[in-house]
Design goal:
The chain is α/β, with parallel strands linked by helices. The protein is 34% helix and 23% strand. The radius of gyration is 23 Å and the shape is globular. It binds cytidine-5'-monophosphate.
Length: 397
């Protein structure tokens, strides 16, 4: 899939730079040509010689190298690639990108380019969570920069949390998705999926029977059309799809935060079965069964994530889609839900036991939009996802 693709790989200065070497190897195995750019800080972690040996090409590093300029000017270097990948993207490099700096070769290339850019951040967890970094990420996303990772895990600095660079094969998958041709190429789409778990105490929770199948197939179908998909999932039964940016959450409140952090997006599809209520103050220790006494659980309403995004005064996605699982008066209830939530489309289905839809492989949906209700014939859930993805592509065209 990457045969004859040209990747300009900018290697920033972080311990994860060693993974960039493996990334080069993986990309070349798949037929891509890799033009490496090593920042000065990157060269503290990996040597130009190893980078160049693996890439089979010379390494670019200096903005003011006269030989390089005579052979290929930095403007041309920035534009001759199919994709620019920054791995690892340090906090500093991302800050300079967000500000539009051009004080070394890497930042100049990133400013001068009209080629899509994918960044694989890597940094200490506190640096990742810092308000300044999060601000910069929002700016970069708004500029259309794609992200892969970071992952959660143990870090070289001894801390644990988000900040580890995505693994080389995950970056390859994201590169393939970014280069996939399709009507949704260049579009960023958010999909929520799965149930949420609302803790009662450390071992018990309120949940529902959602498997995450519908959201997962939809995310897959959107990625297959070339979309950059952000997949925010509760604890689902089915594994998340490949080639999408996965954010795992447990509760509705965490899902809302992850959704907010993923914005801006071109379209947002809310396929998650969010628990309506949470326990007001979940117990920090396991609640004991006491003879004759029953525990009192005070419930509070969870935030409506779909309604929140659909009614955003600023930065609302161009298309907001909700789902409605109904057992009676499907069209009437779903039409009312569309108005109440303020979303553009509602994908409604009848989940009464007699239909066999809940937990089954088939679905029969009604698409409700401003024009009215459109009944789709009963078909496989994958086919429903593919047709929905096509319709989303048409709406965003
Ligand atoms: O109100 P109801 O739960 O029937 O609405 C279903 C739709 O709203 C789904 O698209 C679901 O993902 C979304 N939703 C949400 N946050 C909630 C409840 C529902 O995003 N708290």
């Amino acid at each position: 899939m990457l045969a004859s693709k040209n990747i300009l790989l900018i290697i920033g200065g972080g311990i994860a730079a060693f993974k960039a070497l493996d990334l080069i190897r993986r990309l070349r195995e798949r037929g891509a040509a890799v033009t490496p750019v090593l920042t000065r800080a990157g060269a503290e972690f990996v040597t130009p010689l190893s980078v160049s040996a693996l890439a089979g090409r010379k390494v670019f590093g200096d903005l003011f190298d006269l030989t390089d300029e005579a052979e290929m000017g930095h403007i041309e270097l920035s534009r001759s690639a199919d994709l620019i990948v920054v791995a690892p993207a340090t906090a500093d490099l991302m800050a300079r990108m967000a500000q539009g700096h051009a004080d070394d070769l890497a930042s100049t290339l990133l400013l001068a380019t009209d080629t899509p850019v994918l960044v694989a951040p890597a940094m200490n967890v506190r640096m990742w969570q810092h308000a300044a970094t999060q601000r910069n990420i929002a700016v970069l996303r708004g500029d259309g920069i794609g992200f892969v990772g970071p992952n959660d895990g143990d870090m070289a600095c001894g801390e644990h949390g988000p900040g580890r660079m995505a693994e080389p094969l995950e970056i390859v998958t994201a590169i393939e998705a970014a280069l996939a041709d399709g009507p949704l190429r260049g579009k960023r789409v958010l999909v929520t999926s799965g149930p949420t778990h609302e803790p009662i105490d450390p071992v018990r929770y309120i949940a529902n029977r959602s498997s995450g199948a519908q959201g997962t197939t939809l995310a897959q179908a959107l990625a297959a059309l070339g979309a950059e998909v952000v997949f925010v999932t509760g604890p689902a039964d089915v594994p998340p799809p490949d080639g999408v940016e996965v954010h795992r959450v447990e509760t509705a409140q965490e899902m809302l935060e992850a959704v907010k952090a993923a914005l801006p997006v071109d379209a947002a599809i809310f396929a998650a079965a969010v628990a309506d209520w949470r326990v007001v103050s979940a117990s920090a220790s396991k609640m004991k069964k006491t003879k004759g006494g029953l525990p009192q659980l005070d419930l509070a309403e969870n935030p409506d994530i779909l309604a929140h995004v659909a009614q955003m005064p600023q930065g609302r996605p161009a298309l907001v889609v909700g789902f409605a699982a109904e057992t009676d008066d499907v069209v009437e209830n779903a039409t009312a839900k569309r108005a109440r939530k303020g979303c553009d489309w509602i994908v409604a289905n009848d989940v009464s036991a007699a239909t066999g839809i809940m937990g089954g492989t088939e679905n029969a949906v009604t698409l409700i939009n401003a024009a009215g209700a459109e009944d789709w014939p009963r078909m496989g859930k994958r086919e429903v996802a593919a047709r929905l993805a096509e319709r989303i592509a048409q709406a965003l065209a």
